[in-house]
Amino acid sequence: MTDMRSRLADIVGAANVRDGADAAEDYARDEGLTSVATRPAFVVAPGDAGETAEILKAAAETGTPVTARGSGTGLSGAAVPRADAILVSFERMNRVLEIDTENHVAVVQPGVTLRELEEKTAEHGLVYPVYPGELSGSLGGNVATNAGGMRAVRYGVTRHHVLGVEAVLATGEVIRCGGKYVKASTGYDLTQLIVGSEGTLALVTEATLKLQPRLAHQATVLAPFGDLTAVVRAVPKVVASGIGPLILEYIDAMTMGAITYTHDLQLGIPDQVRDTSQAYLVVMLENRDAERLDDDVAATGELLTALGAVDAYVLPGPSARRLIEAREQAFYTAKGAGADDVIDTVLPRAALPEFMARVQGIAQASETFVVGCGHAGDGNVHLAVFQKDADKRAKALRELFAASMELGGAISGEHGIGHAKKAYFLDLEDPAKIALMKRIKQAFDPTGVLNPGVLFD
Amino acid sequence: MTDMRSRLADIVGAANVRDGADAAEDYARDEGLTSVATRPAFVVAPGDAGETAEILKAAAETGTPVTARGSGTGLSGAAVPRADAILVSFERMNRVLEIDTENHVAVVQPGVTLRELEEKTAEHGLVYPVYPGELSGSLGGNVATNAGGMRAVRYGVTRHHVLGVEAVLATGEVIRCGGKYVKASTGYDLTQLIVGSEGTLALVTEATLKLQPRLAHQATVLAPFGDLTAVVRAVPKVVASGIGPLILEYIDAMTMGAITYTHDLQLGIPDQVRDTSQAYLVVMLENRDAERLDDDVAATGELLTALGAVDAYVLPGPSARRLIEAREQAFYTAKGAGADDVIDTVLPRAALPEFMARVQGIAQASETFVVGCGHAGDGNVHLAVFQKDADKRAKALRELFAASMELGGAISGEHGIGHAKKAYFLDLEDPAKIALMKRIKQAFDPTGVLNPGVLFD
Questions:
Q1: Whether complex ipTM tops 0.90
Q2: Which terminal Cβ of chain A has fewer Cβ within 10 Å, N or C?
Q3: How many angstroms separate the CA of residue B161 from the nearest CA in chain A?
């Protein structure tokens, strides 16, 4: 191990290698509720792709596991290292290399945070519209998990905005895939394969991201509904209307109560309405033209009332911002309330009413308390699961995932599989697909050093 | 071979197997200008995924090449079989299985044509917005080549609309990837890997496609410019305006002359303007609201004039439709005029002026005549190349592709590599990426029976 330490120091400089035992506790974990904090053998901070490639060569030669880390805000444990691993921290590779205003593209290093990219794009009237909620998250981590968030109903998720990557293979080769164009038919799309692969195929050292024009005007409509089923039934109709919402979220009454209490939010909803509402729909609209936005807000209010909303409130700017911020932090609210796990299964949006009915049944039968909110426009349901008994909880989770898959869904919409959901993934997914994914993994990483234990055993 | 024929007949029924020698000439070719027509050993038409799997098992056991065929409208030869191959024609698997109006999804078999899908979606006020121009093209072929077309600037290309596939591997396994949801982070994205793989990784037997609301109102603005550089310089500005055009095409004067002549088009452009214009920009807009569309048309006209257009004409509906149709058929116009090859390189849209300048230089130096048009909004340039001498032509093409790649582009935006552009692909692309793609190919197709000779030697 002394040999490895000096070899790593030769690559990145002594100041940029630490023994895991000496590194900050933060390197041992992510934000997942079930992640087991583990200090790696070494924490290494490369300065560029060339250094990253040398680290991977050293790892492959010695069979040493490598885990990549951005900001550590993941929820599935994919950035949590093994005890014998080299943790590659991209903290030094944190520059926005370019905001290209003609091609509407940003070129970033993996350690750049969403907050920094938001600030840099705003200066140019552009926006990177993927908004997973945690602004301290890194772009490298977002690429690794194919992060989503509230604006996916309008703009899609990380995958739809990564036009190209520079990536280091476990062979030590550095490749560049894609570029500043939105389409190509020139061999296999390696970029799309690397996005969402949770650090198991390659380490991304640069990403070329598609930007959008930043529209000037936004408005938020909040609609309480008598019951959750009515909310989720309304969702496909709002999408079909062509109004094109930026955000289309459902929040159940329990979660709304918790986040408004935690964040001391006053939304101006009469007590009587609040007491009889089981769930809320939040619709955010945007437009480059203020008048068009006003018309759309009016049309949305009428539509929601026609779809069974008790009422529809246009939230003033500051309240709307605080509600969205509070919703973004719902995970932390659930964590603070003692949630034992969170899931983010995705399914056809029209299957949400049936799924939510099944969730209630599974929760009751397993004596598990389940509350949530979700990106209703994309059928992505975020549930906080309260059940101390690990066996009962695992059984309930397996049933929830199986129900989602039976209705045409998948285990995770945006958090990823990592370690946290691996057992369910390997248990419920088609073995032929698992075997194929393992062969693909082998094609990228013949020595198996990239994030072993993530996705596969 | 008699054994194989009877084995295939056992799988699909005798009526659905033909010897290549007895099959129609059409099975031997696609529409590519350089494709070499080749009759396969057998033409087989499976009725479902199970039969397709049995065909692939028989092929893998005997090492017999398999090429998939939709409508044969490809331009790069990926559907042209080898003489010893089984050609799998999806002509019997031609049903639209579902138009799901709540999830905005179509589920189709690979033999469905774009025309049929257009008709079926129109009945429900929805649209599959990928529009590669040739409506007789099959969805299976579109998925295999990641087909693009004129509306990509607004809606993206095939890749962005394929939410899931059922696919048969060369192992005979049938897998289902993705589904009726727009995002997931549940293992590697096999769907996106299979899209654009030109029949070399798997045979797609069903595709789940994202649909959009069909907007009611469309308008087309035609703007002549004094020179081509001014046109391509205007493109990023139109995109940045936020007007969100559905179509943003450039057509050079030579190509415009040819397509208006061939299609007997009267666009109402004064002779004097036409005679001094070197190129045209076609901007199509759409909106769900007629008044908003009118405002956008006016704003577009002002913008184009400010960007140097000689004038901006709003085309009446029938003229606009005929111009777009004629533009779609530009390939056939070039073919009719005796073009020796076509290319469809893609590059950052802001690099178009520099690229077009280099094209002129390459054309002059190689005594090659090059004209074109293109999806300017996505930086996808379609050039017809007139040069009878094969060596001179190959040299010119290599220089054109090298120039595009040097400016950050890729060889093909939407036609694919197939056989037609393989030599350039293998010559110009990073060997590390080629080697990785070959390992991925091996992971899917260990016996190498799927479309050998396409993409790789």
A1: yes
A2: C
A3: 11
| Interchain contact, B188 vs A159, CB within 8 Å | no
The CB density around residue B119, as the number of other CB atoms within 10 Å, is: 12
Using the predicted structure, report yes or no on whether residue B1 has a pLDDT greater than 80: no
Chain A CA closest to residue B421: A186
Shortest distance, CA A269 to any CA of chain B (angstroms)? 30
Q: Does B298 touch chain A (CB under 8 A)?
A: no
CA pair distance A152, A378, nearest whole angstrom: 7
Question: Which chain A residues are closer than 8 Å to B180 by Cβ?
Answer: 347-348, 408
Burial, A22: exposed, middle or buried (Cβ in 10 Å; 0-12, 13-18, 19+)?
A: exposed
Q: What is the pLDDT of residue A2?
A: 66
Residue B2 pLDDT exceeds 80 = no
Nearest CA in chain A to B166: A433
Q: What is the pLDDT of residues B79-114, one digit of tens each?
A: 999 999 999 999 999 999 999 999 999 999 999 999
Evaluate whether B67 touches B47 at the Cβ level (below 8 Å): no
> Which of A193, A236, A241 is the closest to B189 by Cβ?
A193
To test the contact with chain B by mutation, choose from A171, A175, A185 the residue with the greatest count of B C-beta atoms within 10 A, namely: A185
User: A176-180, A188-192, B4-8, B250-254 — which is least confidently predicted?
Assistant: B250-254
Q: Residue B279 to residues B118, B223, B322, B407: CA-CA distances in angstroms? A: 31, 9, 18, 22
What's the pLDDT at A242? 83
Domains, chain A, in order of start with CATH, read: 96-213 (3.30.465.10), 217-328 (3.30.70.3450), 337-418 (3.30.70.2740)
How high is the pLDDT of residue A133?
Answer: 83
Return the residue in B103, B104, B185 with the most chain A beta carbons within 10 A, the one to mutate for interface testing.
B185
The per-residue pLDDT for range A302-355, each reduced to its tens digit, is 999 999 999 999 999 899 999 999 998 888 889 999 999 999 999 999 999 999
Helices assigned H by DSSP within A97-251: 114-122, 139-145, 152-155, 190-194, 228-240
Average pLDDT of the residues in A106-122? 98
Residues of B in contact with A152 (CB under 8 A): 182-183
Could A187 and B455 be called an inter-chain contact, meaning their C-beta atoms sit closer than 8 Å? yes
Nearest to B192 among A156, A192, A439 (CB): A192
B455 — contact with chain A (CB < 8 Å)?
A: yes
